[in-house]
Specification:
Elements (H helix, E strand, L loop, with lengths): L2 E6 L2 E7 L4 E5 L6 E2 L10 E6 L2 E6 L6 E3 L2 E3 L1 E3 L5 E4 L2 E6 L7 H7 L4 H10 L11 E5 L8 E3 L4 E6 L3 E8 L2 E8 L5 E2 L2 E2 L5 E2 L5 E4 L2 E7 L9
Parallel strand pairs: 3-4
Antiparallel strand pairs: 1-2, 1-11, 3-5, 5-6, 6-9, 7-8, 7-10, 10-11, 12-13, 12-21, 14-15, 15-16, 16-19, 17-18, 17-20, 20-21
Length: about 220
């Protein structure tokens, strides 16, 4: 499993397994990774992970976020990258990380307008009484992998091209396009101007990536 190793002045303080989609880093104690330093903002940065890859998003911090010494606003991470937040270092360990930023962004993107809300509301699994479902990726470098839809909101796509949100509600899963002039396709039909209730085996095409919506029932039922 991928992990972050927190250190200060070369001394390891703690290791964090990356076992959830979003990890918030900051000074306040309610962060997933707390760094108790005045050089660190209350909500400093957000680590987002999908499939085998992660990227770092700065949350408008006072002193900025650095990866391998370079100031970044958003950055796809590679194995052994070093994140600098204040005087603390977080070393990213992931032997399976994708090395191509373009490939990574075609698989998953975060709309900047949604990131701040995600810090507060989308970090915990939704508990809305719907069955757990996933998207099965059909093409591209991540073909055969699955995107679990276990959050209240999951954002997909490529920023600047097409971005969509899958919302998990008590009555089912709903797909909405939130960015892009070209309509995303569901079963080869565009849905850019409406919210679409997903059905089992629906085929989605977004930013060149094809995915299939799959319901997860132990008794082989499907979502109505």
């Amino acid at each position: 499993m991928a992990k972050l190793v927190l250190s200060l002045n070369g001394i390891v303080q703690r290791e964090y397994e990356i076992n959830q989609e979003r990890l918030v880093i900051g000074r306040k104690p309610d962060n997933d990774i707390q760094i108790d330093s005045l050089q660190v903002s209350g909500k400093h940065a957000l680590l987002i992970t999908m499939l085998q890859d992660s990227f770092l998003e700065d949350l408008g911090s006072t002193n900025g976020s650095y990866v391998n010494g370079k100031l970044v606003s958003k950055c796809a991470l590679k194995d052994c990258d070093v994140i600098m937040i204040g005087r603390h270092e977080l070393k990213y360990i992931n032997k399976n990380a994708t090395s191509d930023d373009d490939v990574f962004e075609k698989t998953m993107s975060v709309n900047p307008n949604l990131v701040r809300a995600a810090v507060y509301s989308a970090n915990k699994p939704a508990d809305v009484g719907t069955p757990l479902c996933h998207l099965s990726i059909l093409n591209g470098p991540n073909a055969g992998k699955e995107v679990e839809l276990n959050k209240a909101s999951t954002t997909l796509g490529k920023q600047g091209s097409q971005v969509a949100e899958v919302a998990r509600r008590p009555e089912g899963y709903f797909l909405t396009q939130i960015e892009g002039d070209i309509p995303l396709l569901v079963n080869n039909e565009g849905i850019s101007t409406k919210t679409y209730k997903l059905k089992d085996s629906d085929l989605i095409e977004l930013a060149g990536i094809k995915m299939q919506f799959i319901t997860i029932y132990n008794d082989n039922r499907t979502l109505a």
